[in-house]
């Protein structure tokens, strides 16, 4: 009891944190290490694993589909970078005290309530070149709607913009929370100094939203790198693998082609990319806290 009383200031928090740490270690760390280990084998998931060393990684470097998936991940990342500024724009817009704005706010909550699968189904109907809303719009303009999900040139952008809708809504919620926690004294002081419009936004509001903006960018980047649901629902990686990303290629190689070793190698590369970003994210976050202190 004496030991417990002396150390209870940190023992109680440790007891509450321990289950989460254990679960994280088993589910995340353990699975990641096992996946890395499997990537050095040739394995169909049933028979005995055969050691091939770096064979899967060497094959990956010669696989054209890997580079298509990597390029598509870069496209996802580039387009998703529109989410934070659009989220800030809409958050500033709907944060105004205007009649009927509560209804507009509810429209931005809707994509967050819907699952990614539901969003994918809705946009699949929207892109339908025969009876979708896009087809009706082109018909009203006297033109023929393109089959975006069947065209290798446009399919990736079509899927990305469908996924961008809920991502923008998520950023809107983040920035609205940040706007509600602004320091009113700084805003009032800026108004006394006749600051308004762009100057108010750039010099007063945005500095206070720095941490929120950083979180929005981090979540957006991770969402772009782990994109899977929308591709699975809308295209299944097609046509001819043109909309594949690393996460879906990992799934198709492991579950559909029974090449768990090669799928694990792709997963390891994707994990390495995310580790680099997360490491940079943590370094920047710690640096911001030191500057704030």
From TrEMBL:
Annotated InterPro entries: ABC_transporter_permease (IPR051393), MetI-like (IPR000515), MetI-like_sf (IPR035906)
Subcellular location(s) per record: Cell membrane
SUPFAM superfamilies in alphabetical order: MetI-like
Superkingdom assignment: Bacteria
Keyword Transport carried by entry: yes
BP-aspect Gene Ontology terms: transmembrane transport
Transmembrane spans: 12-33, 74-94, 106-127, 154-179, 200-225, 260-283
UniProt entry tagged with the keyword Membrane: yes
Membrane topology: Multi-pass membrane protein
PROSITE patterns: ABC_TM1 (PS50928)
Family statement: Belongs to the binding-protein-dependent transport system permease family.
Protein name as it appears in the record: Lactose transport system permease protein LacF
Source organism per UniProt: Kushneria phyllosphaerae
């Amino acid at each position: 009891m004496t030991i417990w009383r002396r150390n209870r200031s940190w023992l109680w928090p440790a007891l509450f944190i321990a289950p989460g740490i254990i679960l994280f270690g088993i589910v995340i760390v353990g699975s990641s290490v096992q996946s890395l280990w499997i990537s050095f084998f040739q394995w169909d998931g049933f028979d005995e694993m055969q050691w091939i060393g770096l064979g899967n990684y060497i094959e990956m470097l010669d696989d054209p589909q890997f580079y298509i998936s990597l390029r598509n991940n870069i496209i996802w990342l580039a387009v998703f970078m529109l989410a934070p500024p659009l989220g800030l724009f809409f958050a500033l817009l709907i944060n105004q005290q205007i009649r009927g704005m509560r209804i507009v706010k509810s429209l931005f909550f809707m994509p967050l309530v819907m699952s990614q699968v539901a969003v994918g189904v809705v946009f699949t109907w929207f892109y339908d070149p025969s009876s979708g809303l896009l087809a009706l719009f082109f018909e009203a303009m006297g033109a023929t709607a393109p089959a975006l999900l069947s065209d290798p040139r446009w399919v990736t952008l079509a899927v990305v913009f469908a996924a961008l809708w809920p991502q923008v809504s998520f950023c809107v919620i983040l920035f609205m929370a940040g706007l509600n926690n602004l320091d009113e004294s700084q805003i009032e002081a800026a108004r006394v100094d006749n600051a308004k419009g762009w100057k108010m936004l750039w010099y007063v509001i945005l500095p206070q939203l720095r941490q929120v903006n950083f979180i929005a960018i981090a979540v957006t980047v991770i969402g772009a790198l782990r994109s899977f649901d929308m591709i699975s629902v809308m295209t299944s990686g097609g046509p001819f693998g043109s909309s594949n990303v690393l996460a879906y290629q990992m799934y198709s190689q492991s579950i559909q082609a029974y090449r768990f070793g090669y799928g694990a190698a792709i997963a390891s590369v994707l994990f390495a990319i995310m580790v680099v970003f997360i490491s940079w994210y943590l370094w920047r976050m710690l640096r911001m806290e030191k500057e704030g202190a």
